[in-house]
Write a structure and sequence with these properties.
The chain has 189 residues and is an alpha+beta fold. It has one domain: Peptide methionine sulphoxide reductase MsrA (Peptide Methionine Sulfoxide Reductase, Chain A), CATH 3.30.1060.10. The protein is built from seven helices and eight strands. The strands form two sheets. Strands 7-6-1-3-2-8 form a six-stranded mixed beta sheet, covered by helices on one side. α5 links the parallel β6 and β7. α2 runs parallel beside α7 and α4 crosses α5. The longest helix is centred in the last third of the chain and has 18 residues. The radius of gyration is 16 Å and the shape is globular. The N and C termini lie far apart (34 Å).
């Protein structure tokens, strides 16, 4: 690869976010312009190479998360945070809707000091002026080892959009995303 090619190649960053069921979170973030990849997985626990069955017990300490690869020249980390906070309830401890347990906690696993500062600033802003009655309980911690979820979890909504859970929970999130963030979506979404 020539120096010129690498100098003009778009930069990529990672964001790792937990906001309840990773099927929902993945479906939201894969719609955004500037996001090149979204992978469902587990982060923040003590078990090495955890499985979905282990995570579901709530005993591993992991959260269901998505790891997002994005181009900050197209979509900023702050933009990702805006979508993150608008598409889940960050005031419910270890719960999103009917999904209850530490594995469903609201969490931001920061890959840099900039991400930590941005997350804390956004939380302060939303606690002062946000739409919720309670305080935000989103965990802001350094990025931990990310473990990719099993293959059947990847692209779950795309493969199962007619399933009742997808229709009842994910489709309304995507409708909200489209109405609030249409300008940030991939064309045609």
């Amino acid at each position: 690869m020539s120096t010129e090619s690498s100098a003009t190649a778009p930069s990529r960053e990672l964001a790792t976010l937990g906001a309840g069921c990773f099927w929902c979170v993945e479906a939201v973030f894969e719609q955004l312009r500037g996001v090149s990849a979204v992978e469902s997985g587990y982060c923040g626990g003590t078990t090495t190479a955890p499985t979905y069955e282990q995570i579901c017990t709530g005993k591993t300490g992991h959260a269901e998360v998505v790891q997002i690869e994005f181009d900050p020249q197209i979509i900023s980390f702050d933009d990702l945070l805006e979508v993150f906070f608008a598409t889940h309830n960050p005031t419910t401890l270890n719960q999103q809707g009917a999904d209850v347990g530490t594995q469903y906690r609201s969490a931001i696993f920061c890959h840099s000091e900039h991400q930590r500062e941005s997350a804390e600033r956004k939380i302060d802003e939303l606690n002062a002026n946000g739409p919720w009655h309670g305080k935000i309980v989103t965990q802001v911690v350094p990025a931990a080892t990310f473990f990719a979820a099993e293959a059947y979890h990847q692209g779950y909504f795309q493969a199962n959009s007619r399933q009742s859970y997808c229709q009842a929970v994910i489709s309304p999130k995507l409708a909200k995303l489209k109405s609030q963030f249409g300008r940030k979506l991939i064309a045609g979404e």
